[in-house]
Amino acid sequence: MLRHSEDETLLDRIESAADALRSHLRSGLDGAGILLAPLEARALLYLQAHPGCSQADFVHAAGRDKGQVARLVKLLGERGLLVALPDRDDRRIGRLWLTDAGQALGTQVRAARLEGGRELLAGLDARERARLATLLGKIGAATPPGSASDDMPGAAD
């Protein structure tokens, strides 16, 4: 019988925590009546924090391929949640802006995310939260380029 090494056990715990985070986010969104896929919710949060970013910036932050992000941008645009406008200096570059509806929904997503996060982190005191943030920051710093980054909310997707 193969025994788990300490590293495997730690990785299992990280995956379990990521699963719990996704579950809390999903139940928070569902509880608030927000019908968005996790990546759609993350996109709204990212675009709130980075208004007017380029689609290429978003591709890098999301750690997704250009085609997937293009489909997501099209979908959110069709839903009236964002607009892509040409850059004023280089019209080949599309800048992404949330509409008023996108801003409002993003605010709801943020509130649902925080509520779910509070439940998830309720058992940690302030010192433990600070230590966890430090350790997760170290893990994030080791993330290869082109992967989901610290700039992308809910990167555990």
TrEMBL record:
Extract the PROSITE patterns matched here. HTH_MARR_2
Note the SMART domains from the entry: HTH_MARR (SM00347)
Q: Give one Pfam family.
A: MarR_2
Q: Which domain of life is it from?
A: Bacteria
An annotated GO BP = response to stress
Segments forming domain HTH marR-type: 7-141
- List the Gene Ontology MF annotations in alphabetical order: DNA-binding transcription factor activity
Designated name of the protein: MarR family transcriptional regulator
